[in-house]
Structure formats: C-alpha cells, structure tokens
Write a structure and sequence with these properties.
Structural class: alpha+beta
Oligomer: single chain
Bound molecules: zinc ion
Number of helices: 8
Distance between the termini: 48 Å
Number of strands: 18
Helix content: 10-25%
Amino acid sequence: MHLYNHGGRLAVAVDGALVDVHTGSGGAHGPDPHAVLDDWSAFCAWARRLDAVGPATVDATGLDAPAPRPRQVFAIGLNYGDHADEAGFRPPDTPVVFTKFASAITGPQGDIALPEGDVDWEVELVAVIGRGGRDISEARAWSHVAGLTVGQDLSERVGQMAGPAPQFSLAKSHDGFAPMGPALVTVDELDDPDDLTIECRIDGEVVQSARTSDMIFPVPELVARLSRVVELLPGDVVFTGTPPGVGFGRTPARFLQDGEELVSTVGGVGTMRHRLRRSGAQDPGR
Ligand code: ZN
C-alpha cells in the first residue's frame, strides 16, 4: 500500500489512482494522515478490501509529508560505517540518537531556503511507526512499522560544529530541513525492506549511492533499542542515518548552493525533488 498526504488529506493508491481515504471509507478513516496510524490495524483491514497495491501516478505538487506531525522524531547519526569514517569517527557500538524538531518537516517537493552557513545533504530511509510500544523485540519490530518513506536530514554544519559539543538537533532543524515523502510505503510492498538502494543527486550528479543493508544498526534493531528507553507512539518517525558521500567529508568540502536541485531516492519507496534557494538571491534589488 502507498499512502499519500494530498493537501492535508490522506489518500491511498488503488490501480494507480488516488482514493481519498475519508470519503472512500464513508468517514470511517481519515482524513488526517496521523489518525489512521492511531487505528492502524482497522485501517489496513479496510485498505486490503480495496486491493490497495502499488504506487499512484501523482503530481508531487499537491503532496505533503506522509507523517507531518509526529509526536517524536528520532534521528540516527553515523549509522553507515563509511559515513562514520568520512565524518572522522569510529563506527559506533551503540546508536547515536538525536532529534529533528518537528517544525522542520516539509513535503517531498518544492523550494527549501538556505539559511546562513554551510548546508549539507544527507539522504536517509525514514521508518514511520504504526503500532507503538515499549520493549519491542527485534523479531517483532517490522510489525510495529507502518511503512517507509524517503527523507533528507539537511544539516547546517557551521552551527552543528559550533561550541564544545556537536549541536545535531538544532543545526538539523532549520525551516524545511526534514523533508519526507512522497509516499508512506508499507513493508509488504518491498521484496526485502532491509536491503534497498539509496541515492542522492545534485543537479543530476550522483553524490551518495549505497544500500540500506550497509546500516550498522538496521531498522529492527533501532526500533528495539529505542523502545527499550522511550515508548514509541503511532506516527513517530525514525531517520535512520545517511550513507557516505556528504559534502563536509569531501576534499574540498562542498555545500548546497542557491538554485541547485536535490533529488533523493530510495529504491521501491520513492523520490523527492527539492530546489535550494538562498534567501534574497532572487531579489538583488534589496
Ligand atoms: Zn543524518
């Protein structure tokens, strides 16, 4: 099943077209994209009767993030060995966890403003929690995940590195720094949810290309470890870390520039397209 947030209303793909969940279910489910995550089992039973399989052919212009208002956002640092290496760290033996503040969430297309500083790209697989809980076992973890989507953990590196310790959460929470989408794809649509291609392009040039099976802590282990400490809630999202190829690990370092197009893809899950805009760059008269 591919679920979309279409203008703030939940829609599901059936035979390649979008069906509005609220009207299609006679008011039983939706329209709030988060409401179905609170009632996930009943919603899935309804969607199965519709034979909701595969993606929709949809104009991304109308789409917003599939989980736009999570109560908790988890993000994992240094979860690919070669990325830890380029960042100058040893691969961690316990997950590095921070948050991206929820007001940074935006949809899968459109412009993102570049704040002052050095803005870097980090394509990531994002897991959205369906059934919450504490002490979820690795073996049961996938059954607690509603689905997967594509994310970017955009990061302003000057602010991130300022001060005596890294400021992950704040420097990664500028306006629009947590785009997600285009769809929430249920795990049953994927041959192997633990092994997906993941890629980032800037103006057509491939800058990151890896497989999610390279993760040090795969999704089930992250769900298990996080839920040992924090109760996971329906609609929570987990940014699972970025593969190698980010800008600050390059020689010379490279950062996103005004007008560049950032394309983020996870195989079988979807593609997001964003244009970076330096504030005021469009208006030289100011
Ligand atoms: Zn990241």
